[in-house]
Amino acid sequence: MLLGCSVKEGARDGVVFGGKGAQLKELPLPAASAGRASGPCAQAAPVSETLLIDDFEDGDAKPFKGFEREAWWFTASDHTPGSSVSSDGKFTPSPLPTTEANRDNTLAAHIVAAGQTEWGAMFGTSLRWAKAGLKCPLNAAAFRGVKFRAKGPGSLTVKIDVPGTTPTDYGGECTTGCYDAPAKLVRLSEHWDEYFVTWDRLQQGGWGNEVRFDPARVLGVNFTLAVNMLPADFWLDDVAFVSKASTP
Questions:
Q1: Burial of 60 (0-12, 13-18, 19+ CB in 10 A)
Q2: What's the domain count of the chain?
Q3: Could you tell me if residue 103 is inside a domain?
Q4: Assigned domain for 17 exists
Q5: Could you tell me the pTM of the whole model?
Q6: pLDDT digits 0-9 by tens, 202-214
Q7: pLDDT > 70: what percent of the chain?
C-alpha cells in the first residue's frame, strides 16, 4: 500500500531513497581547533599548574599569583537607574564576620546587588597566560573544573569565559551572539558550603554563538546574577581549580 509518496519528474537524477543515482556527501566533523584565532595565541599556552585562584587573604584585586598568570577581579552590572552593586568597578575583599573568621581566614569576597533589570550583575576574574608582553588564554587543561566556598542564600551562575563567546574588544574571538559562555547554575545555602563545577557539567544557554569548550583556552571565571536572581547578597572564598586526581 502506498502512503502518498511520489517522486517528481526532474528529481530522478538526484537522491531517491539512496537508490540508483543517489549522491551522498559526507561532511567532516569540525576539528577541536576550528575557529581559533591565528597569530601568537593560535597555539595553546603552556599548561598552568597553579590550583589556587584566590583566597582573598592578600586584600587586593589581584588573584593569587601563579607562574606566568595574570588576572584581575572585577564587578560589573547593567547600571539600571537606581540599582546598586558592591565594589562597583574596582574590587576589594571584605573582612569576614568575627564569628566566621580565624587566624588563617580573615577576608572574602562579599557581593551585594539589587535593582538591575536588563541583564543583571556579575563578579569575576580575568585569566591570562602572560609572558614578555604577550597575553593569551590560560591553559587549564590540567584541571577538571573549578571549586569554591560560598554562602547565600540565593542562586548564581558560574560561567567560564572562552574566546568563542568573548567579544574581540575583551581579548576573545566573538563578533556576534557573544556572552553565551559555558556555564552551570549553583544554588547556595545560608551556610558556608563547598561547591564544585566540573568541565563536563558546563553548558551554553543556546541563545548565542555555539562553541566547543576547550579547557586549554580559558579567559576568565565569572559568578553571574541574572535579573531573576536579584536582589542578591552572597559571600565567596577559596576559589580554585580542581585537579584531575581529586574526586568532587
A1: middle
A2: 1
A3: yes
A4: no
A5: 0.83
A6: 999 999 999 999 9
A7: 84
